[in-house]
Every structure is written in C-alpha cells, then in structure tokens.
Amino acid sequence: MIHHTLSVLAEAPYETTGLQHGYTGQTLYVNVGEGRIAAKPVSANMRETFIGGRGFDLWLLWHGVRDSTQWDDPENEIVIASGPCGGTTQYPGSGKSIAAAISPLTGVPIDSNAGGHFGPYLKFAGWDAIEVQGIAQQEVIILINAPAGKIQILAAPDDCPTNTHLLGHWLNEQLAETEKDRELMAFVSAGHGSEHTLMGCLNFSLYDRKRKDLRYKQAGRGGIGTVLRHKHVRALVVRTHPFGGDANRPADLKRIARTGAEMNREVTRWDPAQNRMRSRGTSYLVQIMDDYDLLPVKNFQCGSHPETPKINGEIWEKRYTQNMPDGCWFGCTLACAHAVDNYKLQTGPYAGSCVIVDGPEYETIAGVGSNCGIFEPAAILEINFYCDTYGIDTISFGTGMAFVMECYEAGVLTKEMTGGLDLAFGNAESALAVLHQMAEGEGFGKIFGQGIRRMKTIFAETCGVDRQFLDDIGMEAKGLEYSEYVTKESLAQQGGYGLANKGPQHDEAWLIFMDQVNNQLPTFEDKAEALHYFPMWRTWFGLCGFCKLPWNDVVDPKNATTDEPAKIPYHVANYVEIYNGVTGAEATADDLIRMSERVYNFQRIFNIRMGHGLRDHDAIPYRSMGPVTEAEYASRRERYDQQLIDWLRLDPATMTVKEKLAQHRAYRTEQYEKLIDAVYARRGWTSQGVPTLQTVRDLGIDYPEVLEVIRKHL
Amino acid sequence: MITVNQRDYVAWHTGMTVTELLTLMTYTYPHVIVSIDSVLVPYGTYNQTPIPDKSDVRVIHLMAGG
Q1: First vs last Cα of chain B: how many Å apart?
Q2: Of A483, A484, A517, which has the smallest distance from its Cβ to B61's Cβ?
Q3: d(CA A40, CA A260)
Q4: Predicted local distance difference test score (pLDDT) of residue B65
Q5: Selection from A144, A316, A121, A128 nearest residue A207 by Cα
Q6: Domain regions of chain A by residue span
Q7: What single-letter DSSP state applies at residue A392?
Q8: How many Å apart are CA A303 and CA B6, to the nearest integer?
Q9: What is the pLDDT of residue A1?
Q10: Contact residues, chain B to chain A, C-beta under 8 Å
C-alpha cells in the first residue's frame, strides 16, 4: 500500500474543551462544499430541552435545512451524536452513536443508531456532535484529530477504497502509525452500494484489540449512507487521546460504578439461563419468533416455517467465534456483537477472500433469510457481509427482496424485467446477483435500490399490474421498509410501526408480546397508553447514548414482584442512577419520559414541516394488518375463521374465501383507524396527528418556528 | 378446563404443571412471569407447581424485539 501525504483542502485548529459531566459544550460543523469548519456552542436550552444524541441531531438538522430541502440538496446534513452517557464504561450498552439526516427513502428526518467507537471518541475528542453539510467537489475524508489539535478536510486519493472493509484497512495504514493509534481511531463510512441506491447504511468502526482487526456496526435505517456518499465523503475519522474509565468526566463516578457492578453481576448470573446474548446475540430471537408465529416468512405472509431450525440461534452459536470480546463498546458485559471469523466469500468481487462477518443479527437473519425463503446460513453470511461493505441496509434489502420475490412468484415481475434473474423465494444466488448489481448501479439492482415505495410505482407503470396488490404486499410505510416482525395479530404493534416517526422500525415500540400473547392491552386506551410510554422510554436511550438491550434482554426474576414488570422498573431505576451520576442532575423516572416527549413531539413537527407528518402518512400496508391473498388465508384458515365468528358473529362455513378476506379487511382496517384516534388523543395530538398548541406549550417547545409549522394544520 | 391470559381455554388434566402448560402453549420465551389465580409462581418451580382445574393462569412474557 502506498503511504500518501494526504492533501489538505481545509483545516482548522482547535483545543479540546474540558469534557464535564458527559458534555463538551460544543458541536462541530463541517461544510464539505465550502471547506468551512466551525465550532458551535451548546446552549443551555439545547442541553436542557434536547439532552443529546437524537435530540441534538434533530435540533441541529432543523436549523440546517429548509422546509423544501430534499435529501440530495447541499443543505441536507448528516448529524451524529452520542449523548451525555455515551462513553460510560461501567454500565453495559453505553456507547451508542445516533445518526440523523433527511432520508432519501422517506423525505423526513431519519434517526438510526449504531454501536462502535465513533460517538464516544468524538466526544472524548472534544465534540458533543458533528454536523456535515454541503457537497464536496471531490472525494474527501474528514479527520478530527484531537492529538494534533486540528480538524481537516482531506482529499481522498485515487487508490482510497470506497467499500468499507477495504477502506478501513486503508485508513489504518494511512492515519495510524502504531497499534495504539488504531485503538484510538474510529470512523464512519458507507460503500459503493450507497452511491447507487437510496438504502445506504453507515458503518461505525471499532478496533477489536483481541482480533487486531477492524469490525463494524451499522446505523442501517433510512439511507444515511446514501447521503454520505452523495456528499462525496468517503469517511469521517476521529482520533482521540488515550482515555480511562472516567473519560466522560461524570459527576459521581462511584454512583455509576456501584450501579454498573450490580448490573454486570446480573448479566453474568442470568444471561446463560435466559436469552444467551453473550453466546448467541440477538439471533436467539429467530426460533422464539418462529414459535410464536411472528417470524416473517416469504414477505410476511406467515410467521413460521419448518426450516427455521436451520438458521436459529443454536446454529449461529456454532458459527460465531466464541470467547472473544464481543462488546461494541468497552465495558459492555452483555457483549452480543458476535462475528464469524475467516468466512470465505463465494461470490462477487471479493470471492475467495476470507473476511470477518459482523453478525448476522436477528434482523438480518429474518430479513435476508426467512423473509426471502432463504434458510442457508452461508447465503445469509454472504449477503450480510456484502450489504455491510457496500453500505446497504440489510433490513431494507431483506424486506425489499421479499417483496420482489413475491411479485416474481405472482407473475408481476418477469425475467424480462429482472434481466433474466429467477427471483423465486429461496433463490439466494439471484438475491446476491441483485446485491452486486446494486453496488455497481446496474441492471435490476438499480431499480431495486430505489426501495419498495418507488418500485411499486415503477412496477405499476411498466407492468400494468394491479396497484392495490402492490400496495397491500409492499411492506413499507412512510417510504421505509419494515423491520422483521409479523404484526397481523397485534394491533398495538401495527401502531408501533405505523405511528413511528421515522417509519416502521421496532426501536420505538415492540408490543407484540404484551398485546398478542399476554393480552395485557385489551382496550384501545390500553394500547394507546403503551404506545405512549414505550416509544418515549425507548426514545430516551437515543438521547443519552444507551443501547436498549440491557434494559430488557436480561432480567432478574425479582422483577416479577414489581408493580409493572413490563417496564422492568428496577432497570429504569438503574438508568436514573446512571443519568444522574453522569450529569449531576437529580432527575426522576418521570423526568426521563418528559425529556423524550419533547424530542419526540419535535420530531413529529419536523416531519410535518417537511410535508409528510399527518394522519395519511401513518397509513400502513394491509399485509401488516391481515391476510391479503387466498393462499395466505388458507395457511391460517382455522384462526381466521374463528376470528370471523368471535369478532363479527359470521358463519365462515357459508362464505367464500374472497368474502372472508373482505370481511377481515373491513374489520381490521377499522380497528387500525380507531387505534390511531386513541393514540393521537393520548399524545395530545389532533385527529390529523398534529401536536396541539397546548401540547407544545406544556413541553416547552413552543418556539416561534415550531408554532409556525403547526398553526398551518390546526 | 383452565384459562390462560384471560382468553385461551386449555383442557386440564390431573397433575398438570406449569412447565407442561408452557410446553403445550409453545411458550418458549425464557422471560415469563407466571401466576395462578393471582398468586405468583416462584421462578424455578414451574416443573413442580401443579395447576388446579378451573384456574386463571397468567403467563406474562416480558418484552423482546431486536
């Protein structure tokens, strides 16, 4: 490899301000189009109202864009922040980064979180957030170099790779002279797939000291990788100083250490008897979801498949390299970020190379596996690796491919349209061929990369097919592809997906067990309350730099005696302790929810500002509510027939399948509309989904520009 | 006959244990809280705890999701 002296296009010196109680007090602004670099102070209002992480992202993005900004306009920004607790090493899951931008898929702000070292290192290097704006005239690398005390926009030379696994090694060679340098450097990148599709993901690096190699976690959702590559940014790189366990300069380290030690004992004691995250990661969910008929199979048509044991957690536990330090941030004892080492690629430009595959995690296994009718671990690994290095979101790829495969089997798509590819369910070879085309921007892959919403229009216009069928089976809402859970029998989770600000991603709410299995949410008011509390609670993780998993993926049985076991109250108390221990505040559990309400409502209003945040935009495809096709009905006939009797007092014996489908559709659609009414009322929104004046005043977000947006719709 | 989660009716037999019920219902998720007629069944005793006929059994799954 040639060692370059990289050309400096712009440079600004800086001094690392004193990180104090989880904040540096400043954010970094980089305009790659103008070569402008600036520091912005974090105001008291910004800190108190928006807290950090996703809150800071949205606040900065709001001020960076116009009402009419499209994803590919220069003023669109990528903003990345961790949060005040990000970088804590005493409590598991405290190193998340949250990225945001105007999404190429949805046209509204997308937020997406990832592990890896970038967010905490950015803060240790002196910045609470980074904001990247403009479009560079040439390929660039942004380097935040704390040891050298400068920010640089560097020209990326011709031999600088784009695909992440090669780029990472190149950056290590060029910018890190010693092993220690590598440990103290982290970067964010995408890949060629991000250049030619709208579903580009960001890869967040971490240097794995035991493997002495780079690994990556993905902020996958909504196409932020696409925005990065459109800006001609090859990588955002941060180098930080050596640091210890007090790097976040918490107000009360002992308080944090005490709470963390207790939680770490709990993880060690209970994880082996529960989800086994430490050996299987989220892949444990595959068989569980299948057992409860919730695993998406063949484009969400049904929820289980006889071949699931071929791709369940037991299989992955054998494939993952065990006894390695698999936390995605230091000190995480849950350590679920597993990987398969020395996987020999079978296809594509790197065929024959042995690589580390990060994951696969549950969403990838279900998305590119069962949902596409693919039950081959090797194929899932191959797709996982290439999606990551090309910078493509595995969820959008999986859900999109499942849609295409159903279209192909239904005769909507022909080989003429697919360029000769047989895209029947289960055809992993063809799925990989499309993936490689996406990286090159060629063939059917170019169409596929536009995402389901645009594919529906393309197929309807070019194939003359029934648009209703495409709308029914195309699993997207707001333009974002669904993540990987079957929701037909959980009205609350239909709302969890449909009402999510960013689009149907489960990190706002996952209520299927409470609703469908436990029957704890029998009324609309019960569901609405859950669709208030849980999205707010989970939003809070994204404000502070936390991972959701330690909250409820390992639980001491003592939780059973608490008032509200679903909330895991004693873990909530842990988070109150950590937050207060870091920031020096004395917040209560209710205060944490209040913090989220402010940011959540602000994001809703941001959506409205961008023209996509009203009731119509909370619509969901019928496949997520009920059976679309006669075959789908037949696969669960007993259940659906019984529901006609129980819900509608009908006699299925006297009805045709077509009549049954129509009755189900009318009933289920009406239920969803009633749910929306109940949730809007609980959240303090109008019947069109607009936060009321009273709501924004109560939350203290009644800024003139916010009022200007909502007044147009009241 | 017993009821599960106030919705499902399950045939009862003499000596039926909590573990048997969980297996019958395919409740494989490890994070569950079980009560019989509002009395909590201690964790780790499911295999030895019989369910009386006509019981109101609640099996509360804690939330999951990736």
Answers
A1: 36
A2: A517
A3: 33
A4: 66
A5: A121
A6: 8-239, 275-481, 491-554+588-711
A7: B
A8: 23
A9: 63
A10: 5-7, 26-31, 33, 40, 43-44, 58-66
DSSP B17: B
Pair of tokens at residue A556: 């001491």
Contacts of A288 in chain B (CB under 8 A): 28-29, 64
Cβ distance A288 to B40 less than 8 Å, yes or no, reads: no
In contact, A688 and A714? CB cutoff 8 Å:
no
Six token digits for residue A326: 């698999």
User: Given an 8 Å threshold on Cβ–Cβ distance, is B64 in contact with A363?
Assistant: no
For residue A198, what are its two tokens? 């709208």
**CATH 1.10.569.10 matches A275-481:** yes
**CATH T-level fold of B2-61:** Ubiquitin-like (UB roll) (3.10.20)
Identify the CATH assignment for A491-554+588-711 out of 3.90.79.10, 1.10.287.110, 3.30.70.1350, 1.10.599.10.
Answer: 1.10.599.10
Q: Are the Cβ atoms of B58 and A518 closer than 8 angstroms?
A: yes
A112 to each of A482, A624, A709, B23, how far by Cα in Å? 14, 22, 25, 37
- CA-closest candidate to residue A708, choices A698, A696, A699, A700: A696
Distance CA A704, CA A683 (A): 21
Q: How many angstroms away from the CA of B44 is the closest CA of chain A?
A: 9
Token pair 């220069």 in the structure block, residue: A74
pTM, entire model: 0.97
Q: What does DSSP say about strands A202-208 and A185-189: parallel, antiparallel, or unpaired?
A: antiparallel
Q: What is the pLDDT of residue A324?
A: 81
CATH fit for domain A8-239, picks 3.40.50.300, 3.40.50.2300, 3.50.50.60, 3.60.9.10: 3.60.9.10
Kindly report the nearest CA distance between residue B8 and chain A, in angstroms. 10
Element (H, E) at A151: strand A150-155
Strands B56-61 and B2-4: parallel
pLDDT digits (tens, 9 = 90+) for A144-179: 999 999 999 999 999 999 999 999 999 999 999 899
Residue that has been written with the tokens 């709410």 in this structure = A509
CB contact under 8 A, B59 and A518: yes
Q: Which residues of B touch A553 (CB under 8 A)?
A: 64
The confidence score (pLDDT) of residue A2 equals 62
- Bridge partners of A150, per DSSP, are A13, A145
Strand, helix or coil for residue A39: strand
Count chain A–chain B contacts defined by CB atoms under 8 A.
75
What is the Cα–Cα distance from A627 to A152, expressed in whole angstroms?
Answer: 55
Q: Residue ranges of the alpha helices (H) in A365-522?
A: 377-390, 394-409, 415-418, 428-440, 443-448, 452-463, 467-473, 491-498, 512
Say how far apart CA A469 and CA A304 lie, in whole Å: 23
Domains of chain B, residue spans: 2-61
Chain-chain contact of B28 with A510 (C-beta, under 8 angstroms): no
Identify whether the C-beta of residue A79 lies closer than 8 Å to the C-beta of residue A202.
Answer: no
CA dihedral A533, A507, A329, A110 (to 10 degrees): -110
Tell me which residues of chain A have a pLDDT lower than 70.
Answer: 1-2
The SS3 call for residue A8 is strand
Domain A275-481 in the same topology as domain A8-239:
no
pLDDT in tens, chain B (66 residues): 999 999 999 999 999 999 999 999 999 998 899 999 999 999 999 999 999 999 999 999 987 666
Residues A238, A148 contacting (CB under 8 angstroms): no
Q: Give me the amino acid identity at A574.
A: N
pLDDT computed for residue A38 by the predictor: 98
The residue written with tokens 């969403």 in the block is: A363
